[in-house]
Give the backbone structure.
Amino acid sequence: MTRATQAEMTVKAEDQGATRHLRSDFTGSALIAGIVAIIVGYAGPTIIVFKVAETANLSDGLIASWLWSYSVGSGIVTIVASWLTRQPLIMAWSTPGVAFLVFALVGVPFSDAVGAFIISNLAILAIGLVGWFRRIVDAIPMSVAAALNAGILMPFAIQLIADSQVEPVLVGTMIATFFICRLYSPRWAVASVLAVGLLLCIALGKFDGSTLSLSLVSPVVTTPTFSIEAVINIAIPLTVLALTGQYLPGLTVLRSYGYQPNSDKVVRMCGIASLLAAPFGCHSINPSSMIAGIVAGPEANADPDKRYVAAIVAGVVYLVFGSLAASFVMLFAALPAEAVVALAGLSLLAAIANSLQTAFTQETDNIIAPTVVLAIALSDFSLFSIGSPFWAIVAGLIVTVSAKWRRG
């Protein structure tokens, strides 16, 4: 028997052993946790993509391609990472990043945006390759990053309040559903709002289901173009939001459950997946902070060593949802704009609250910095064709550094 044959037999035996291991670790609770994680993940952030489509005039085909590339990329990385590490590593996109794009893509050619996505993800991949993740994140004060995040997300909550006057019955009922469900199951609050909102739209005759059908996605490739304005206005803020708003909290959630993922390896895997997904419209793929607790918690399995199965199930559900992304586009297009805004605003309330808490409790002796960041991020300030998110970061860093210099 040759060495090559022996090696092949060894690999085959290892694969069979891993498969048996997966079957023995599989439980009904892992199946439910994986499915619930993706439903919760889709119910909230996905709706914001349709706000991006509205403000940036993106076609339904392009949005379906975006959802497809996000779902397939997240699904593959989730399955591979969880399988290799035996840890529940579940991926998603940057929710603050999607919210940021609602305003950042206005008037920007989508090809320039895709170019900015590529630059941002190249920067993140480089950080992972050289092992600078922790160093870069530590260089950006959490108070500044959290205030930027809150400033980008806050307009969705403000628009929610405004739309409650336009459609008081529909939006008011969705708001009441959200807060009532949070009393009993915060995890299901957003999904419940989606279900109640959909039923109410049908009952009030505000749901146009004439175009609904099950259909597979035809991915759309956008050839990237590159501009200095898009790099500054889109790539830099996206990178900061991904590192501080997704990678750091996502990995921190896993550590809180006792897992120790290799941060730089995760950054590299996500960076590569994001680069491959960018031409199809997806801005980033990174560790999830919102749904990580669902697959990493005891509900997935009493044994922490077996919870990786829930993440693998979630990855498979990602692939299924991604193949039906065109149907999701038709579903959300059939809803009135007020229902879409309400769902987006409600799904982001917890993130806004957490960001504000972090912004103003990280450095209690320097609350001016997050206040300046929040004010600039909320404004329409622009200088040299560079938008407010970039200047919010710059101003926050200047105020922070000057305060430390003054204290000596």
Observations:
- The mean pLDDT is 83.
